[in-house]
Amino acid sequence: MIQTMKTLKKLKRSPSAALISAMFILTGCEGDTSGVRLGGQASDSNQPQTNLIFAPAAAIAEAQPPSSTFTELSLDGETLTLDELQGLMFVPYCSSCHTGGGDSLPASMNFTSAADTYVSTVGTTSTEDPRLSIIEPEQATNSYLIRKLEGTQSVGQSMPLGGDPLPGWIIDAVKRWIDDGAVY
Question: What interhelical angle do 2-9 and 15-26 show, nearest 10?
């Protein structure tokens, strides 16, 4: 935990470096992440660069959501990419149930990769509330996913099912990505 706090103090370099560190902290990794690439962009460092590699979806699907005292990440108005959101939210909180391996919810939706998350959500009509798309680009407030995350949906249960609500800053990051067009 002491190393985590030291890492958090280093996050003033850039939002990208902060996100990389946040993903490592949320998944239990600690230490210097200054040489990691995020979405092909080098961090603000003269360190040798390393690509961020995630575990296979099958292994991730069995993982439990992270437990951490890390509660906020300032993005200074930047919009995260779907790949970044995938590592921050969809894999650790959603992919263990939304596996794409079934004919009905939750398994009928696939959140195990950014490409599968995009196909399962963006412009896709909700089966629980057919009046709404799961994600309606440029309209976070009219996206069923946001209503499920905030607990304001008219049918079904809030997400993550049976778990604590996601931190507001994660939901805000998803909203910003949707309002900016939900681009992949």
Answer: 170
In angstroms, what is the C-alpha Rg of the chain?
16
CA quadruple 95, 20, 178, 123: dihedral sign: negative
Q: What is the pLDDT of residues 81-127, one digit of tens each?
A: 999 999 999 999 999 999 999 899 999 999 999 999 999 999 999 99
Question: Which of 24, 44, 26 has the alpha carbon at shortest distance from 34?
Answer: 44
Tokens of 130: 């057919």
- Residue 80 tokens read as 């995260």
From the list 97, 98, 93, 34, the residue with the least C-alpha distance to 68 is: 93
Q: Can you tell me whether residue 72 is helix, strand or coil?
A: coil
Record the tokens describing residue 50, joined without a space: 């390393």
Cα distance from N-terminal residue to C-terminal residue, the chain: 35
Q: How far apart are the C-alpha atoms of 94 and 70, rounded to whole Å?
A: 19
Question: Other CB atoms closer than 10 Å to residue 64's CB: what's the count?
Answer: 8
The partner residues of 135 in beta bridges, in order of sequence, read 122
* Spatial separation of the C-alpha atoms in residues 31 and 75, rounded to whole Å: 21
Q: Is 50 helix (H, G, I), strand (E, B) or coil?
A: strand
